[in-house]
Amino acid sequence: MFPLDSPWNISFAGCGFLGIYHVGVASCLQEQAPFLVENARHIYGASAGALAASALVSGACMGEVGASNIDVAKEARKRFLGPMHPSFNLVKTLRILLHRLLPPDAYKKATGRLGISLTRVTDGENVLVTHFNSNEELVQACVCSAYIPVYCGLIPPTLQGVRYVDGGISDNLPQYELKNTITISPFSGESDICPRDTSSTNLHELRFTNTSIQFTLSNLYRVTRALFPPDPLVMKTMCKQGYKDALHFLKINGLLQYRRPHRPLGNGAVMGEEDSDNEDEEERHTREGELHHDAHSNIEEHIFEHLPPRLHRALVEACRERRTLLESLSNMFPVRMLSTILIPYTLPLESAVSMSIRLLEWLPDVQEDVGWIKDQTVKLLQYVVQNAGRSVSQQMSARFSYQLELKHAQSAPASFSTANLLPGWVYGGSSSVLDAFQRVDQYQRQLLPNLFCLNLNLRGSFSTGPSQTTASTPPLPIHEETDEGLIMGPLGSSNPIMIK
Fold first, then answer.
1. pLDDT tens track of the chain, all 500 residues?
2. Which residue ranges have biased composition labelled Acidic residues (predicted)?
3. How far apart are CA 372 and CA 163, in angstroms?
4. Which of 18, 49, 101, 127 could form a disulfide with 45 if both were Cys (CB 3.0 to 4.6 A apart)?
5. What is the pTM of this model?
């Protein structure tokens, strides 16, 4: 059961050309539960949801709103590229329709109750606008909320001197996190009022800026039709689907308000004053419950089968094709084939004409828009330069620190170990100290003969002849130590070196 003892809100999700679904939901709420709309504290909307919320708050005719949605879709479908064709100006079309549909005092009714979701261009933050000083300001807020960058143009519109774009970019379902907010979305998911794709058992979903979108083929089709409008008959079916889903929500929450007939027809159904004396209280309540249930079921079935007459007539009239003689001729197969072949030649011409018209319409705002473009260009260049300087400084500091570490590693002493202090032939892979001393002794023995030979060569090079020993000087004793044919003795002037 929906809690009516506390204030509640209503929130419409952004959905592009699927806004016709919101028209069906709003029409159902107006007719079957008007207290739910009248007593709502706030009614929020983003993008196409903002248009539906504005119409609901201001009391606009939902039949005209639905017919206008279909007219815009038909106008976009006439062109080869649809709404992307240069000759289709969605912003201008929306502004004209809103001025025609909204009553003169719409801004007074909307102030304080209507909340339009906008995305600020400077920082990308979401802004909820709730105060409007005129109908022009209300229309401009709706245009800003539905302005998709590149899709609608390159220069965002302004509201009160600030540039805004589509509110669905930052918050597509405003205030969805509040428990007392009735969320409405044309995508199957977890919203309170939304289509139920019972044929799919996929439990995965996508959260797009607070909007729940279940992974189903039907939702995939809806997403593609949000930017490229479907056939008018399909849009009429979507409107009817929105009416049914809203009625289902009212039913399961006990919010339906039917006018109970004062004198229901049927045998034993007349509860006059004469019969009230003969029937006890319990039987009377039982019969009243049965009659109310029967009337409830009959009225509900009738509502599910048909839209409200006014809305139904408006949608049927909008779906009807009004073709002139020229349009009938252009719809013939040979003419359509010829126009398709000539698209490479006609499209540039149409684009040039459309751009010329837009430039003429842009002249009053040229100075303001050019100044904004200049400021944004300067900010972009400053951002690029700052990032480039920051990246270069980071690379230079990283390279400098790497070179310092490399120089420190090259100049640092090696770690203390036996293998580094002694040559490899001394260490020899053995950890015994005795083996090391034996190898050192052997090394000295191999080194000494080389030194003696070097001394002998030097002495021979400086003397002119062989050295003579005096007879009076007795020869010194020679200490013999044989090692591989070498006889060693002390070096002296009269001691020869003999080699065996």
1. 567 778 899 999 999 999 999 999 999 999 888 999 999 999 999 999 999 999 999 999 999 999 999 999 998 988 878 888 888 899 999 999 999 999 999 999 999 999 999 999 988 899 999 999 999 999 999 999 999 998 998 889 999 889 999 999 999 999 888 888 999 999 998 899 999 887 766 677 888 888 989 888 889 999 999 999 999 999 999 999 999 999 999 999 888 764 433 333 333 333 344 444 444 444 544 454 444 444 444 555 554 446 788 888 888 888 887 777 776 777 777 877 888 888 888 888 888 888 888 888 888 888 888 888 888 888 888 888 888 888 888 887 777 777 777 666 655 555 545 455 555 555 555 556 567 667 767 766 666 555 555 454 545 554 444 444 444 445 444 444 444 444 455 544 444 444 44
2. 272-282
3. 9
4. 49
5. 0.68
Are 179 and 173 in contact by the 8 Å Cβ rule? The answer is no
Tell the residue number behind the tokens 């040229």, with chain if given: 366
Say whether 47 is catalytic: yes
Choice among 11, 47, 188, 212 that is catalytic: 47
Domain architecture of the chain: domains with CATH:
9-253 (3.40.1090), 334-396 (no CATH)
Supply the DSSP symbol for 82.
G
What distance in Å separates the CA atoms of residue 499 and residue 490, rounded to the nearest whole number?
Answer: 14
Return the SS3 of 181.
strand
